[in-house]
Amino acid sequence: MSVIRNEVRRATYLDSIVLMRMSREIAALAGVEEAGLIMGTPANKEILREAGILGPEGERAEAGDLILALRTGDADAAEAALAEARRLLDRPSALGAAAAADAPRTLRAALRELPEANLALISVPGDFAVAEARKALDLGLHAMIFSDNVPLADEAALKREARERSLMVMGPDCGTAIIAGVPLAFANVVPRGEIGIIGASGTGIQEISSLIARAGRGVSHAIGTGGRDLKAEVGAITTLMAIDALDADAATKHVVLVSKPPAAEVARLVLDRIARSAKPFTVCFIGSPGLALPGNARAAPTLKAAAELALGSALPSRAAALAPLRVRGSYVRGLFAGGTLCSEAQVVFAAAGVPMASNVPVPGAAALTAAPAGHAMIDLGDDEFTRGRPHPMIEPAVRDAPLAAALTDLSVGVVLIDVVLGYGGHPDPAGHLAQALGGRRDGVAIVASVTGTDADPQPRREQVAKLEAAGVVVADSNADAAALALTAVGRASGRERGAAAQ
Amino acid sequence: MSLAFERSDSVGRAVQVVRAGIIARDICRRGARGEVAAVFERSLYWRIGDDFICIGEPAIGNGPTTLIVAARVTELGVRQGLRAIIGNERITIGDLLFDFRNCATWRTPNWPAPLSSATLRTTCVMLAQRAAAESPADSLARAAFGDDDTPLARIARPRIARFASLMRQPPASSSPAKAGDPVITAPSELIGRRLLDAPLSRGMTREGVVHDLIGLGYGLTPSGDDFLIGALTMLDALEQTNMHAALGHAVVAAADRSSPLSASFLRAAADGHVGENVHTMIAAILTGDADAAVAAAARIGHTSGWDALVGAVVTVTRMSEATCGATIPGCRATRSSGLRQDYRC
Question: Is the ipTM above a cut-off of 0.85?
Answer without folding.
Answer: no
